[in-house]
Structure formats: structure tokens, C-alpha cells
Amino acid sequence: MLTVGLFIPCYIEQLYPEVGLATVRVLERHGVRVEYPEDQTCCGQPMSNTGCTEEARPLAEKFLRLFRGYEHVVAPSGSCVSMVRNHYDGFLAGQPGFDHLKRSTWELCEFLVDVLKLPRLEGAFPHKVGLHQSCHGLRELRLGSGSERRVAPFNKVQLLLSELRGLQLVELARQDECCGFGGTFAVQEEAVSCMMGRDRLADHERAGAEIVTGVDMSCLMHLDGLIRRERRPLQVLHVAQLLDRAEAAA
Prior knowledge:
GO terms for molecular function: oxidoreductase activity. Helices cover 50% and strands 12% of the residues.
């Protein structure tokens, strides 16, 4: 049986623990044994993104100590996985086990597609769903082709969702546009961040979405705040929760 180390981002642990539990259930349904190192902490992305690199360094080093012994590490977050794969070099380059850790740390959907190579998912989710493609997942992990690249179209998250009975993916006018969250950007540039979020929600509404899903709960948290404050007729659901509910209904 394949064993993975489960990394749960700090904001999911503190605010959306159900996303972590859904991730475990999805992995276990597909024959994966999940271990959760209880000493894990934040990956250091917030500090690194704001220029506090020395404050981020001990968190990167701790991540390596906790997870380098696993064949694979899986997380329900594109941005945190991208932090490990694309931004840890300045902290960990040359340290034992780091090259393996970079190659073997996966966002949940890409793990299901690229490692488990699932031919299809058995499940039902009879709703109109809008897929929000977060910037880190799309442009750093390459979960999808992106409209600005001259490559054959692909989308790993959409591939999984398209297998679910009754699920209708709505067609967005600007399918890979940023939601405006950007971590501390949402605090430092609140007005711009909210305008970008409203633009994304308007696109989903025009397309007829009932539910907005994605691989980053941070982006969905930002959008959900706007939805609730403005009483918009939308719901957000992390892709792990959506897959978990759909498979449970199979």
C-alpha cells in the first residue's frame, strides 16, 4: 500500500479542517495510507512572500525534517505545494533529501492524476460548477495549460470533475483570471483585491454556476467573504470536499 505524508496548510487547519478530512477520505478510498506528522506547521509562504525570508527559513527546514522520509507528500493547496517545489531552493538547496522532497510533493488533484493515474472517478455531483483556477496552481504547478501559453489545452482538475455524473462545468469568459486574494495583497490593497474578486464572481454568476470550486482554500476564502457580505447566490467548496461528496454518493 502506498503511504503518503499529509501536509495541511495552517489556514485549513485553523479555519477549514473539513477540507483536510475530505482529503484523507478521498485518498483512502483510492487505496492510499495517509500519515499526518503532528509537529507540522506553516510552510513559511506568508513570510517569504512579504520579504521576511529569515523568518521563513526555519519553517522550510522543519518541513524538510518532517517530510523527507516519505515517498510522496500530498496537500490540498496549490500555493503551499508551489512554495515547496518552486521557492524552497534558497533555504534548502544541497541539503540531504531536498531534491526528492521537491519532486515528490503534490497538490491533491495532480497526485490523483499524475501519480495514481486514476482512469476515472466514480461519483455523482448534480450541480453547475465554476472552476476557479488559482494562480499558483495554474502558473507554477501547471495544473492547466493557461490561456497565455501556446500549448495543447489540458486541465488536471477539470479532468477529474468531468468524470462525475451530473456535474456541469460552466464556461467562464475569463477562466484563468486571478481572484485578487494574493495573501497579504488582500490586506495591503484591499480595494483592488475586492474589485478583482467581484469580477471573478460576476463571471461565475453570468455562466450560471451554483458552486465555485478550486484547489486553494485561500482563494475560495476570499471569494466566500465577498459572497456572504454581498449575499450573492453562490457557494464555495474546495475540490477535496466536492470529490469526497461525489464519491460518497456513488
